[in-house]
Structures are given as C-alpha cells and as structure tokens.
C-alpha cells in the first residue's frame, strides 16, 4: 500500500512538473494584455513584435480559391527583386485586379484600414490562406501588387533581413502550435522590428581586418641565373609594433567568438519570427477543424438499415435520402470525417453483400465535436483562431482540447 501511494504521488509530481514547464515560455519572450508578443534573438541584436488576428471567413475562401494568382504575383515580385522582368498576360492581370478589389470589399472596418496594400506575404508556401501584414512605422517596402503598378515608379526598398521575417512566418504557418498542423485564416501583424547591428558591423570589420593582415605577402621570383639551392634566407627581427598588432588581432578574434556562437543573425531572426508567430497564435482562442467527405451511397431497401449502421459507427451524418424514380434504389447523401473513411467502402460492401456502393468526395472543414475529442480519433486536423478557420492536410489524434 505504501509503495502504491508513493508511486501515485510521484506520478502526480511529474504531471505538475510537466505542466509547469509547458506553461513557461521561452527566454526573452513578452506577451502583453492585447496579445502582442515581443521576442528577442539570443544575441540581443534583433527584436520582433507580432500580433495575431482572425481573418474573415470570406477572405479565407478568397485566398484558398486564388492560389494560382497569388503564385503568379509572387513569381513576378521575385523577378523584380532580382532585376528581371516577367510578362503577365492581360487576362491574368484583370483577374488579379478583381482579386484585390474583392479583398478590399471584405476587409472593412478600422482594424483592416489599408490592409490590402500592407500585405507583406501569404503563407504557407507563399500562396496559402494566411496573411502577414506590415504594421511598422517608417518601413515602406515594395508592394505585393507590383504587377498592377509596374507603370508607376517603384516606391520603397527592402530592409536587410526582410526575407528572414518572411521565412519565419512561412515556417510558423506551415506547422502551427497545435499538432504541428498548417494554419488557415490567420493574419499576423508585424508591429515591431528593431535591429542593433552596430556591434555586428564592428565585428565584421574586425574579421575583415584580420583576414587582410593574415594574407600572405607575395614574393618575387628570382631570375633563372640565380642559384636556388643553398640560398640564405635573412629574417629581419620583428618590431615591437608587430607584436602589439598580433595581440590586438587575437583580442579581436576573441571578441567575435561570443557573437558567432549563436549562428548568423539571419537564422536567429527566422527562429525568433517563427516563435513569435506561434505564441501570438496561442495568445488568442484556437479551434481544431476536421476535414469532411461528402458521401453518396446507392443501396436497395433491403440493406438500408445496414448502411445507416455503418455510417453511425464511423461518426457519419445523413443529410438527405431519396428514392431513384422507377427503381428500388435509394440515394443517401451524408458527410463523413476523413479519418473515419479508411476502409469505409470495403466495410459497407461486406455488410451489404455488395448491394451498396459509396462514393467519397472532399467537401469542407467542420469544427471538431466533443465526441471525437473523447474518442481520441480526430480527422485531418485544422486549426483556427478566434472563430475563423485554420488548415491541416494529414490525420492526427488528440484526446482533449485546451
């Protein structure tokens, strides 16, 4: 009995310890009451502040349905950044213009003021249903709508490490904090981005100096008449200034070491942006969504009850039932979670002796219900923020929602 009690106490202590560790955020992160997450890189040279907001459902649908246009815009912007030109036909330009106008029509209100022109990037994979907004004062970067403004003079320039901010956003939307599934319908606002590169610049200069001092001195080649064997090499004594110069070089190398141990600043900024987006997402209400199939089953009246039994067993929901005219065949329309669809066709054929044949087509995403949470078997998961939807494209299991 005593050993059992001690074992239970140890398990409880471990559970509380794990919860305490999970509740603690990483070092250097700050979250205010409004959901603004501020994170500093390990070398203390860069600080980012990110806030998360849910996108309206209509905007999410627009982003999902116009992925090809977003990819075309991204290719054009990349070619412009590299100094190249990419021709886009007039029909595609008109479609992009309509897409922009639809976004402006659905992003209304004071919190979305001029949001379309402040879009920094789409994600994940640079064309997904998530948006990164530029909310920084004094940073006017080239617009993502450059293909529509190519006749106007280019306004704005890219800051250093601009791509690091975008890469961190892409990684965060590709694998969210819940089940590491992709996000959908989330808007991240970059409200703070500070860089302290004076120390980094001085270190780079010192490294370049060291490389110039350590470079070998070119030697003159003697003529063919001069004998090479037995030649005496005269080495002049080192002056005191040379010794002090070598000491200063070694000191500079020691100064560079603490900064280099954290890796390049671009990589640290990517990791900081990724973690800031993840914690900004967790600072808001979240939801898990389940991928659903539309299921159409043709069955005779003799096996109709067995079809309903299989659907009920697999968490299906019947939407409609109608009889095909002139026959004894019933057409049943239902929805079925994707995770419950594995082996569904084989089971329903076995139970009905081949008299029922289902057809499954992906339909939509639905909010995960409590019975799926208790059973521990969730369909393809989808995360959402503040009541709006978020994506996932693989099956996963979750026992409870936080």
How is this fold's topology laid out?
Elements: H1 2-23, E1 29-31, E2 37-40, E3 46-54, H2 57-65, H3 67-81, H4 90-106, E4 119-123, E5 130-134, H5 162-174, E6 186-195, H6 198-214, H7 240-260, H8 265-282, E7 286-300, H9 304-313, E8 317-323, E9 329-337, H10 344-351, E10 357-367, H11 370-375, E11 381-385
Parallel strand pairs: 5-6
Antiparallel strand pairs: 1-2, 2-3, 3-6, 4-5, 7-9, 7-10, 7-11, 8-9
Q: Helix content range of the residues, please?
A: 25-40%
CATH architecture assignment name of the largest domain: 2-Layer Sandwich
Distance between the termini: 34 Å
How many strands? 11
Could you spell the SSE succession in H and E letters? Answer: HEEEHHHEEHEHHHEHEEHEHE
The tally of structural domains comes to: 2
Biggest β-sheet strands, sense, barrel: 6 strands, mixed
CATH class of the largest domain: Alpha Beta
Broad structural category: alpha+beta
Biggest sheet, strands in spatial order? 1-2-3-6-5-4
Measured by DSSP, the beta-strand proportion falls in 15-25%
Net shape: elongated
**What value does the Rg take, in angstroms?**
31 Å
| Average pLDDT rating | 75
> Residue ranges: pLDDT <50 for 5 or more in a row?
16-23, 199-240, 252-259, 370-382, 386-402
Number of helices: 11
What fold name goes in the CATH topology slot of the largest domain? Ribosomal Protein S5, domain 2
């Amino acid at each position: 009995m005593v050993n059992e009690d001690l074992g239970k106490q140890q398990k409880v202590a471990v559970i509380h310890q794990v919860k305490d560790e999970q509740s603690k955020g990483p070092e250097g992160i700050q979250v205010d009451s409004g959901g603004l997450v501020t994170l500093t890189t390990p070398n203390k040279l860069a600080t980012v502040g990110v806030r998360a907001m849910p996108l309206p459902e209509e905007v999410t649908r627009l982003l999902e349905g116009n992925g090809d246009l977003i990819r075309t815009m991204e290719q054009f912007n990349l070619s412009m950044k590299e100094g190249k030109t990419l021709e886009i036909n007039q029909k595609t330009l008109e479609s992009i213009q309509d897409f922009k106008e639809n976004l402006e029509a659905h992003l209304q209100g004071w919190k979305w003021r001029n949001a379309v022109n402040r879009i920094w990037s789409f994600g994940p994979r640079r064309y997904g249903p998530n948006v990164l907004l530029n909310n920084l004062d004094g940073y006017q970067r080239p617009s993502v709508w450059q293909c529509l403004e190519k006749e106007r003079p280019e306004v704005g320039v890219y800051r250093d490490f601009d791509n690091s901010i975008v890469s961190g956003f892409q990684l965060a939307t590709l694998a969210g904090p819940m089940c590491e599934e992709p996000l959908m319908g989330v808007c991240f606002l970059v409200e703070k981005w500070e860089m302290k590169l004076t120390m980094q610049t001085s270190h780079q200069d010192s490294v370049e100096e060291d490389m110039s001092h350590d470079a070998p001195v070119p030697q003159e080649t003697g003529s063919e008449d001069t004998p090479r064997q037995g030649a005496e090499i005269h080495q002049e004594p080192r002056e005191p200034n040379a010794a002090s110069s070598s000491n200063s070089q070694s000191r500079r190398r020691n100064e560079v070491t603490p900064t280099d141990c954290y890796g390049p600043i671009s990589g640290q900024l990517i990791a900081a942006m990724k973690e800031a987006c993840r914690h900004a997402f967790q600072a808001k209400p979240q939801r898990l969504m389940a991928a659903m199939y539309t299921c159409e089953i043709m069955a005779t009246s003799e096996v109709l009850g067995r079809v309903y039994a299989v659907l009920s067993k697999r968490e299906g929901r019947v939407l409609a039932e109608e009889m095909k005219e002139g026959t004894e065949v019933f057409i049943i329309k239902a929805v079925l979670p994707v995770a419950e669809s594995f082996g569904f066709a084989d089971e329903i054929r076995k139970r009905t002796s081949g008299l029922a044949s289902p057809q499954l087509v992906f339909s939509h995403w639905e909010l995960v219900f409590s019975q799926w949470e208790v059973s521990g078997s969730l369909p393809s998961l989808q995360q959402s923020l503040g009541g709006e939807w978020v994506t996932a494209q693989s099956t996963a299991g979750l026992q409870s929602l936080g």
